[in-house]
Amino acid sequence: MIRLMAIALVLLAAATPSYAMHIMEGYLPLGWCLLWYAVSLPFLILSYRHIRGLVQRSPKARIGFALNAAFVFILSALKLPSLTGSSSHLTGTTLGTLTTGLMSMPLVGFVVLLFQALLLAHGGISTLGANIFSLAIAGPFVAYLIYSLGTQLRLPRVLSIFLAASLGSLATYVTTSLQLAVVFPDAVGGVWASFVKFMTVFAYTQVPLCVVEGLMTVAVMQLVARSSWAERPEPLRPLQTVGLSLLALGALAVPIVGMRIDFGSGADDQAGELVHQLNAGHDASPFISAFEPSEAAEPWLFVLQIVLGIALFAWAIWSLRKKTTR
Fold it and tell me: Structure pTM?
């Protein structure tokens, strides 16, 4: 387990932030924005009811839910360079999918995406429904199916978790590619040709990063997530606590290092350029003008998001250890 954390820490140390996978404000027609809101809203309602039910049945479930929400907050703020010369971010949704249930993720995704849209100008308010569907519905659903299949095939649990996290993360970007391809079909090849082009921007960029997310998800699940619902959770070992602390410091270092090092444009910027190539007349004017931070302030806002995630994560771990010492 320490080896997994070491690998993840090395990969974090080599990372630098840029932009996210979100569909940006103004890049979907209003009708499509409303459609994706209509699709995502029922999942948000069900997610709220699911989480409320968990907490009412077992107050201890708040600890597991806090860990899962913190994991998404931290990982979704990490913009990592890819081998393709672009950059993207992790999702972190598989942890909660496998511990507190598939329906716990839509509400978590909503909170994280709203935070980023309002304070970081990443994604948008009009495109929030579409981004919720790709990040917090489609990705977790694929992760759940992969993990269930791995369990039925009697694969090692660690391998099932790794595949679920990796492919679930990839599914988020495949969904984003399809969402854009349907709206901006290629003039010659139609939706399929456009889908392949968007895949080269989003999904191919994400493939090496999926490995990072898979390793980190396995490490955290083995360290703390399982204990959050066990009847007699085991306390964290000193080395495990040190490992989590190093990962936290590594996560905080990512946006700070990114202030001085540029590892290429973000996947969403490249997707915007592709939209203009497919539809030169498209007007990308935002429907809703949100706060847009300066270039100097943006990394510190990502630091703020990571700090909030770490604080929530630390509270959950403290609560977990407190229960084990009673």
Answer: 0.83
